[in-house]
Amino acid sequence: MIEEQGRVVAVEAGAVWVETLRQTTCSSCSASAGCGQGLMDKLGVGRGRGLVRALCGLQLQVGDAVIIGVREDLLVRGSLLLYLLPLAGLFTMALLVQALGASEPGIIVAGLSGLALGWALVRWRSRQTVDDPDSQPVVLRALLAVE
Fold it and tell me: pTM above 0.85?
């Protein structure tokens, strides 16, 4: 389970909206001087807060600190689907049309069509699983506030 700390900003039936602080490991990386991501982090680009809807069976209130979690296999499968499916569509369509003897503009159009088809499949799959409780982040525990 991948865990992240956040603060409850809204409560709804069976779920809460949690605000998390986006973190990066660029400060601990030895290649940060020559890395574009390290430079962007130093400039503050991409830094901010994210809102996550997490399923919850606890009685929480706005302002409570919580730990939310996502299963590792969901993250890996989601990443593969999001990145590899459109690329696979691009290469498959481009190579298929090239094998049929099309000209370069035709190959480019076919590759872009395969990329768009891959994106459409990712979107369709995400809509199929949007309400699946097994694919949602969950609140693992509430943190006690110390005064």
Answer: no
